User: Fold these one by one.
Assistant:
Number 1:
Amino acid sequence: MDFVAHCISEFNFFSGLFLNIISLVVLFKLSPEKQNKNYKYLMAIQFIAGIECSICQEGDLRLIVALTFVLILFIITYTVIIIYYKRCKHFLTEHENILTQKTLKLNKQLLLILFLQSVTPLIIVGLPTCTFLFIIAIKKVNSTDNYGILIHSLLTVTPTINSFLYLILPERNRKGIRQFFIKIWKFVCCKKNVVHIQVGIQLEMAHRGHNVIIE
């Protein structure tokens, strides 16, 4: 059990930092200008809490603060999801005939993100926690420390999974990320080509200079 928790912590450190930082960039660079600001700020706080959970080690006071934020955000997120989901569903039903396909598609993607982000903690943390409580109730184990460590590790992974869902589900985000990596690839390739050309010119000039000296 300790080995599994250790692997989860190691995975969350690297992937959590990368995914949550990228999610913050995408959130403020690629999000539609008319996107709800409250939703944007709520997502930003989640990603920042995810970064904090990835960096802090077990027993660190900052981790306790970060996890407290995460738990509070779960409650806020569920409340926002219920309210927003009902309003959005009602709006889409009433105005389906006058909305463009692009607008409908964006709203459906947003609803899917909110739904999956609400389900993620229930599956990743809720099920192990229920199992943990059941084991305690039937007193099948002498020590529950290992199970507590595992649940703690799973809780810190939840923000990372949410940031991953935010990055891959909306088509706009996928295109933006793909274009970003294409630009990096082209930049690296151009740099290599420039270096190769410069080296070739220098070699050619050196070769010609050598020939002149010989003559």
Number 2:
Amino acid sequence: MTAAAEAIGQADARVGDLEATLRRLASELAVLGRPAPSRLALEPGQLAGIGAQLATSADAADGFWLMRRATAATLDSLQNAFAAVDARDPDRALTAISAAEMSRATVRAWPGNLLTLPFWTKATGDLLAALRSLAIALRDHDVAGARAAEARYRSAATSAHQADVALAVAIAEGGSAVSDTPLAAAALALRAVQDALGEVRSILV
């Protein structure tokens, strides 16, 4: 996001040159009795403003996407832990659980305020704790402990679907909150440039 903000802001210096080129082309076409291209739907300083907006939100956006990647890493490691437990491989399960706990800690440490995200971190933490207990019981050949851990896991798993929904809502809300306005403005600016270039190409063909 920071790199995009810098690139858009730097492009502002070229808006004036592009407008001058379009005016010159319009004059030349007028001599030939041909219609002029439309005026560029951008003003000098507009891209600089969009770049500044993006820069302002860059830290928040970068932090959000770091958190988003951590949720994906947590779910991947959780899936690996499930597979290892099913394969009766407690050492591999414990390694995957530790990885999931680390990435989940990154999510919990994120300073944003999304109402549904704590539900996901809580439900995921319950699943990981149950899986850890189960993996340890398997490793230690503790039959009673394994039964208790399985019961604990089944209880935690009842919230899995709601947790998935909570995460989806959090990701949607968080992504739009940190990037929608400046990105929409950037998209409109890019469209204006594309439209102008398209008209020029149609004239030159």
Number 3:
Amino acid sequence: MDRRDEFLLKMYEQMFNDIDRHHKIVWQVIGVLVGSFAFIALAEKGFIPIDIAVAVIVLLALWVIAHVYDSNYWYNRNLVIISNIERQFLQSSDLKDIQYYFGEHRDKNAVQTSLKIQLYIAYGIILVFLLYHVCIPPNTYC
């Protein structure tokens, strides 16, 4: 194995590490978002206004959405690099025998399924808390 092959294999390994790191980060910020529900308890106890509590939760949900899109960008980027490295080592017959992913790239802006779930969680939280805010007294529009 020459230096180029060693370099490509190290880079291949690092791309998977980066993908894993970005997935973990998004789940961690989801945890922060869920923890922010404590603001509702503070509002119900009268420590902070409900407007502030809902605003903080919505802002944190938007922060989660930004992390999801950022992580998805890095996922797609790294997957392209991984596929290109695989093309250096695999043969065209391996498209059938081993795996077909290195043959062509995913759609440019396709969102990975696990990241889509996190997006839906964040959008759902925004919707629930905005409805909660609108439907509680004195704003009983529901």
Number 4:
Amino acid sequence: FLGLQAFVSREELPPRIRADLSKLVRAFRVVVVLCRQNSPFLVVSGHPDVVALSKSERRSIPQDFSIGSVFEGEVYAVDKNNNVFFNIQEDDGKVSLVTAKLMAKNMDNPDKIAIYRPGSTHKLRVLRYSLFERSLFVTNKKELMKKDVEINEEFHAGQHVTLTVKVIADTGIRGTIGINTRATVIVHHTLDLPIASWQKAFKEGQKVKCRILYKHGDKHIYYLTAKPTLVNSNDEIITEYDKEYIVAIYRPGSTHKLRVLRYSLFERSLFVTNKKELMKKDVEINEEFHAGQHVTLTVKVIADTGIRGTIGINTRATVIVHHTLDLPIASWQKAFKEGQKVKCRILYKHADKHIYYLTAKPTLVNSNDEIITEYDKEYIGKFAAGLCAKLLDSGAIITFYNRVKAFLPLSEVKKITGLKEGVAVKGRILMVDPEKEKMTIVIGEKMATDPATGKKKKEKKSKAVKNLGIYTAKISGQWKFGGTNTTLLVELPDDNVGRLHVSEFGKYTSVKAFLKEYKNKPLNVRVIEVSKLTQLPKLMRKKLTSEKHVKRIYECTFDPKKLNDPKKKQGRLHYKIDFSVGDTVTAWLVESSESKFQKAEVNPVYKAQINPESSECAMNDYPDENGITRATGIISGKGELRKGKITGINRSKNSKVLSISVENDSK
């Protein structure tokens, strides 16, 4: 063809002419082995085993040669890597279609390459035959030329071998087994437990006990396992699909006593068990669950889409991402681990398969509100907790159990600060249309009367809010039960009382700015500490008891870092108490007494006093009665922020105070 070119390597030429390229004076048949799209260049092969594909006898090692057999070969070429190539003479004087290759690593005297000049003959021994290269791989090492030395570079699956490590790569280990056979251990087969630092367990030249997994389809390369569990196992070696491996007691035709677990309509099959503990008649078996039921999930897989595991005896269950934590965060997977037991609730069952979908959201799992499982008018007026599944221009879709959905109007959405998909929402059922399967939910206070009967409802006792839990609360204003001006009053669910210190506002540093944004609006807060009334000052305790009738108050945080922390550890979430001299801290000015020091507050645990020597103080114009000119703090507006370095710490039980030297321009 016009403009078409082809390349054939020396190894792919007919054996009788590859030793003498001057014989290339006439055409010979070739087969295309490689071509590229839109390229006029072809790679071809003239090897008889490739061209004469119909002659299968030419594709295997001749009967005259076997692994370990000895013969004489005539050198016809030496390549740049000092590999020597031999022609093999047949009995009729013709050159064999099979050639031999003596690699430098298999030579007896690799430093004397000059003796392998073209035309010289050498005694060789067969190591193996490469169908891929159509060549015998040979050796002439003295220790291997002895007839009593067995040579076998063929291994079988499951065989124990010793790997000499040559290369440690990101993909695994490469080395040699036997005389010089290449072998590879992929990453997953290096150690029993897959760890990121697996490479530190190996080093070049190390001898590693392994087992053969399988041989490469085309090349003479073996893949091994170095996992101690597999290498040292005395169990059956499975190398083929054979019924002989079936456990004897479950052979075809054998009968067994079984107990039904469930029936799968999808698979048209009974699922059974013969476990001794489940075969007893007094043991109840029920693998059917209903929506809203509490279950314990055993985590098996943590994927990007959610958690998969089992409930009950061995029933499959899934928790999708939006139902894992109360607040949807990117690092939600860190809150779970394989084998963990997680308290959940049934959402619904898969339509065709015996798989249940669950919620692990604490707000839904621990809720004592109504469980909505159908479109029923009986739910009107009742409070229920659901999930914000979708935000619309006109409102939001809230999902409950058994895939029941409710519409939350836009006017109600605006009442919830920062509402987004995946957040739990608590509200009152306003309307239900069973025929059209429609439902409306609103956010509001609990009604004093039952809308169905008109009778007054009994007041429920206040339920304790759990420490470290996240709740939808409302900021009603300044803390009015005594103390400083740095704390806000938080109304928690079920009439519980909390307080929010300015140090826990997150990005906000001013009480005034925070109240302007969130006063009387629902927002999510996390409880970081529970305080009994006996721990509070006497005056504060008296006011709380008379006005709120509570036994404890809850310290809260609005800091996004603490809200999104998945570990729920007290030491990570409570007020900072580990201060050191020299640390820079933030404090808020409070009203000062007649003390010479300006007072401030770091958090409810630690107070602060600003040193008179700091830049925020000035000298009196006149000395006092003793003739001493003193420094007096320049008092700024209460509640303002100041930053300074700690110069002293008082850690006494009843008075924890930091001495602070205020920095310039620290507002």
